[in-house]
Design a protein that fits this description.
This protein has one domain: 4-Layer Sandwich (Purple Acid Phosphatase, chain A, domain 2). It is built from seven helices and twelve strands. It has a six-stranded mixed β-sheet with strand order 1-12-11-2-3-4, with no helix packed on it. A hairpin with a 2-residue loop joins strand 5 and strand 6. Helix 6 packs parallel to helix 7. The chain starts with 8 loop residues before the first helix and ends in a 26-residue tail after the last strand.
C-alpha cells in the first residue's frame, strides 16, 4: 500500500513521500487567456430568493476519471488491476476527508459481451466500496454506456445525468456518451434548461461531463456535437466551471468565461490533441516511471463564488499488495482501442 502522511490534507497534497509534483491553480472569473470566443455571455434572470450564491463553507471534493477496469494491454499498462486499488488507498489515507468523490466516466473498459460488462461493473463496485468518504458519485463514459445506451450502467449506478446541491454549490453531471452520436440530445438539453432556471445568475455551478463539450478533436471523438447548446445555456451564469475526463491528460480550455478542465486517467495516458496521429492510441508504459501521467485531482470550493483551487495529485506507484479482483472475465478481455 502506498505510504502517505496522514497528518493533514495539506501535508498529503505536498506528496513529498511520493516524489510527485503538484500543480495548483486558482480559478477566478477573469476571461484573461481565453482561447475561444465560441460562447457569449447572455442575459439571465436576476437573483431569486433562496438560490445558491456561494459555498456556505469551504470544502473540497476529488475527481477520479477513466479507471477502465477490465483493460488489458501489457505495452500500455502491465499491471492494470493495481491502479484503481492504489487510488482508493491513496484517498483513504487522507486524514481530512473530502466531502465527496466523483468518477467522471469510463469506470470499466468496453466490451460487447453484456455478461462481461456486468462482471466488470460488479468488480468495480466492490473495489470502490472500500472508499472511506461520505459520498461517492458516478458518471458513465462511452466504454460503460455506448454499447447499450447506458442500460447496464443505470442498473449498477443510477441515472446517467443528474444534478445536486452541496453547501451552496450547484453540481450538474451531463451524459454525452449514451447517445451513439456523442450528443447530449434535446431531452437532456431541455432538462438542463429546467435545472438551471431557478438559479441565481451568480450561483456557483460546477459541471461534470465525460467528453469535452466543444470540438477538441472531432476526428478522435473528442467532441460533443451539440455541446455548444449546453455551453450557451451555462454562459448566462457568471460562475461556471467544467471538469471532464475522456482525454486522459490535464488540459484547460476557455469558452468565454467558462473554464473546462480535463483530468488524467487512472489507467493509461493518451497523446496530446496537437498530435498528428490518425487516432489517439494509448501512450506506451514507461517501466522507469510507472504510473507516469496518471492521477486524480482535488478541488477546493472556497466561499467566493466561482473561486476554486485545483490540485493535481499523481497516482502513487502501486505495489502487489494493492491488487484487487482480476478484471476482464472470461469471454471478453479489454484492450487498447484508440479511444479515451
Amino acid at each position: 500500500m502506498p505510504t502517505w502522511n496522514a497528518a493533514t490534507r495539506r501535508d498529503v497534497l505536498k506528496l513529498t513521500t511520493l516524489g510527485g509534483v503538484v500543480f495548483a491553480s486558482s480559478l477566478l472569473r477573469s476571461t484573461a487567456g481565453c482561447s475561444s470566443d465560441k460562447s457569449a455571455v447572455m442575459g439571465a434572470a436576476g437573483p431569486k430568493p433562496g438560490t445558491p450564491r456561494g459555498a456556505q463553507q469551504e470544502f473540497f471534493f476529488l475527481q477520479l476519471s477513466d479507471p477502465h477496469w477490465g483493460f488489458t494491454g501489457p505495452q500500455v499498462n502491465p499491471e492494470p488491476t493495481l491502479e484503481l486499488p492504489a487510488a482508493i488507498a491513496a484517498v483513504n489515507a487522507i486524514a481530512n476527508k473530502p466531502d465527496f468523490v466523483i468518477f467522471t466516466g469510463d469506470l470499466t473498459h468496453t466490451t460487447d459481451d453484456v455478461n462481461v460488462r456486468k462482471q466488470r461493473m460488479t468488480e468495480f463496485q466492490s473495489i470502490v466500496a472500500g472508499l472511506n468518504v461520505p459520498m461517492v458519485k458516478f458518471m458513465a463514459g462511452e466504454h460503460d454506456a455506448a454499447a447499450d445506451g447506458g442500460v447496464t450502467f443505470k442498473q449498477f449506478f443510477g441515472d446517467t445525468y443528474y444534478s445536486f446541491d452541496h453547501k451552496g454549490v450547484h453540481f450538474i453531471a451531463l451524459d454525452n456518451v449514451s447517445d451513439p452520436t456523442s450528443n447530449l440530445g434535446m431531452t437532456q438539453l431541455d432538462w438542463l434548461k429546467s435545472d438551471l432556471a431557478p438559479l441565481d445568475i451568480e450561483a456557483p455551478i460546477v459541471v461534470f461531463s465525460h467528453r469535452p463539450l466543444w470540438a477538441l478533436r472531432a476526428d478522435w471523438d473528442w467532441t460533443t456535437p451539440d455541446g455548444q447548446q449546453a455551453i450557451d445555456q451555462l454562459s448566462a451564469f457568471h460562475n461556471v466551471t467544467v471538469f471532464f475526463g475522456h482525454i486522459h491528460q490535464e488540459l484547460v480550455y476557455m469558452t468565454g468565461h467558462i473554464a473546462h478542465h480535463a483530468a488524467r486517467s487512472l489507467m493509461f495516458a493518451l497523446p496530446s490533441p496537437d498530435s498528428d496521429a490518425s487516432k489517439p492510441n494509448p501512450v506506451p508504459w514507461d517501466p522507469e516511471h510507472p504510473n507516469a501521467n496518471l492521477g486524480f485531482r482535488s478541488i477546493d470550493a472556497a466561499t467566493n463564488p466561482g473561486d476554486y483551487q485545483v490540485t493535481e495529485m499523481p497516482l502513487p506507484a502501486p505495489t502487489p499488495g494493492d491488487a484487487g479482483a482480476q478484471g476482464g472475465g472470461e469471454g471478453g478481455q479489454g484492450s487498447a482501442d484508440g479511444q479515451g
